[in-house]
Structure to design on (374 residues):
C-alpha cells in the first residue's frame, strides 16, 4: 500500500512539472532566444450566414516591446493547411533557410501591401508601436476598442482550428523575401496579451457558455453542471448508506464515488471561471484530472476484488499479490497515459488519448482483465 502512495505522489509531481496551460486569454513573453513560439490552437465555430457578427471568431489584443527593433518580426494566425509546412520547417538548423522554407507557401497567399496586395490577412508585424494600432491595421473601425489588432475569422462551411505563433523572421518588402531577424543589440523580448473568442466581443453577454470556449469545448459547462447535480443527490445517499451498512464493498465504492465527486467539483470550478475570464484555474483543473484517475483506479480495484469473490463469498482474500500487482500496473498505465497526453502529443496531431501507445496499452489491459473475469 505504501509503495502505491509513493508512486502516485511521484507521478503527480511529474505531471505538475510538465504543466502546460491551455487558455483563451493568453499573456506571456516572446524572447530573443526562442526562434519560434507556438501560442495556442483554437477552434472557431461555423459562421452563421444570418448573424455574421455574432458568430464570427475574433482574435484581438496587444503586442508590445520595451526594446527597439530594426525590423519587425512576425505574428502568424494560420489555418491547418498553411500551418503544417510552416511548423515542420521551423526545425531547420540554419535559421536563414528556416525562414525561407517556413514562408514559401504562406508567401503566396498572405497579404502584403507591396508584394501581395490581394492576399489574405494572416500576418502582423510585431511589436506594435506603444499606444497605437499595429502597422498592418489599416481600418481602425475593425479593431476592437482598447486593443492594437483584430482578426476576424469567418468559415461558412464548418468549424475550423487556427494556430497562433510568433517567429523571428521578417519580410523584406523590396525583395519580397523572408529573412531571419538577428538584432545587433542581441537581446529583446515582446509582451503579448491576446484574447481568442467565438462571437463578437461587442455582444458577448448573450453567449457566455460559448464565448470564451474553443469550438471543441463549447457547452461542456452545462454538462459538468448536470453531472454535478446528479452527484449532489447520489453522494449524500451513498454516504447515508455507508453509515448504516458497514460493508467493505460499500466503503470502497463510496471512496471511489467521493473521489470522482471531488474531481468533478474542481473541474466545474475551473470551467465556471474559464467561462468568465478565459483563463480559469489550470492547476485546479489538473488536480481534478488527477482525482478522476484516482477514482477510476479505485473503482477498478473494487471490480477486481469483486470478480475474485472478495467480500461476497468470503472476506478472506486469496491471490492477493496478483490482484494488487495487476491493479498497480493498471494505475501506472493510467497515469502514464495522462502524462503522455500532456507532454508527448504534438499540437498538430488531431488525436485523442486512445490513439497513442499508452492508450492502446490501457485498452489491452482492460481486455485482459475482462478475460480474466470469465
Ligand atoms: C492595449 O493597447 C491600447 C492602446 O492601443 C491601450 O489603450 C490598452 O490599455 C492596452 N491594453 C493592455 C491590456 O495592455
Ligand atoms: C463594436 O461596436 C462598435 C459600436 O457599435 C463598432 O464601431 C465596432 O466596429 C464594433 N467592433 C467589432 C469588433 O465588431
Ligand atoms: C531588402 O532587400 C534589398 C534588395 O535585395 C536590400 O538592398 C536591402 O538591404 C534589404 N533590406 C533588409 C532590411 O534586409
Ligand atoms: C512572394 O510572393 C510575391 C508575390 O506573390 C512574389 O513576388 C515573390 O517573388 C515571392 N517570394 C518568394 C521568395 O517566393
Amino acid at each position: 500500500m505504501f509503495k502505491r502512495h509513493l508512486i502516485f505522489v511521484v507521478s503527480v509531481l511529474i505531471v505538475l512539472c510538465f504543466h502546460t496551460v491551455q487558455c483563451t486569454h493568453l499573456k506571456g513573453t516572446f524572447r530573443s532566444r526562442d526562434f519560434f513560439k507556438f501560442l495556442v490552437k483554437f477552434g472557431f465555430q461555423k459562421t452563421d450566414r444570418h448573424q455574421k457578427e455574432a458568430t464570427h471568431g475574433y482574435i484581438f489584443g496587444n503586442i508590445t516591446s520595451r526594446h527597439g527593433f530594426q525590423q519587425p518580426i512576425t505574428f502568424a494566425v494560420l489555418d491547418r493547411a498553411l500551418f503544417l509546412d510552416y511548423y515542420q520547417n521551423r526545425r531547420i538548423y540554419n535559421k536563414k533557410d528556416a525562414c525561407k522554407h517556413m514562408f514559401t507557401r504562406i508567401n503566396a497567399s498572405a497579404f502584403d501591401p507591396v508584394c501581395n496586395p490581394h492576399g489574405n490577412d494572416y500576418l502582423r508585424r510585431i511589436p506594435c508601436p506603444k499606444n497605437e494600432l499595429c502597422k498592418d491595421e489599416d481600418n481602425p473601425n475593425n479593431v476592437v476598442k482598447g486593443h492594437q489588432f483584430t482578426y476576424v475569422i469567418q468559415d461558412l462551411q464548418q468549424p475550423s482550428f487556427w494556430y497562433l505563433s510568433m517567429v523571428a523572421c521578417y519580410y523584406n518588402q523590396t525583395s519580397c523575401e523572408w529573412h531571419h531577424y538577428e538584432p545587433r543589440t542581441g537581446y529583446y523580448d515582446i509582451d503579448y496579451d491576446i484574447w481568442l473568442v467565438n462571437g463578437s466581443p461587442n455582444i458577448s453577454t448573450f453567449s457566455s457558455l460559448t464565448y470564451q470556449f474553443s469550438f471543441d469545448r463549447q457547452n461542456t459547462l452545462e454538462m459538468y453542471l448536470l453531472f454535478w447535480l446528479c452527484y449532489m443527490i447520489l453522494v449524500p445517499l451513498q454516504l447515508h448508506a455507508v453509515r448504516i451498512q458497514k460493508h467493505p464493498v460499500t466503503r470502497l465504492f463510496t471512496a471511489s464515488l467521493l473521489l470522482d465527486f471531488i474531481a468533478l467539483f474542481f473541474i466545474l470550478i475551473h470551467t465556471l471561471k474559464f467561462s468568465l475570464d478565459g483563463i480559469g484555474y489550470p492547476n485546479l483543473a489538473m488536480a481534478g484530472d488527477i482525482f478522476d484517475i484516482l477514482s477510476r483506479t479505485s473503482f477498478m480495484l473494487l471490480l477486481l476484488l469483486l470478480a475474485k469473490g472478495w467480500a461476497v463469498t468470503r472476506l478472506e482474500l486469496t491471490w492477493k499479490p496478483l490482484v494488487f500487482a495487476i491493479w498497480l500496473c493498471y494505475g501506472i498505465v493510467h497515469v502514464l497515459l495522462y502524462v503522455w497526453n500532456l507532454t508527448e502529443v504534438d499540437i498538430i496531431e488531431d488525436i485523442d488519448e486512445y490513439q497513442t501507445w499508452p492508450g492502446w496499452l490501457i485498452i489491452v489491459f482492460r481486455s485482459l482483465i475482462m478475460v480474466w473475469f470469465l
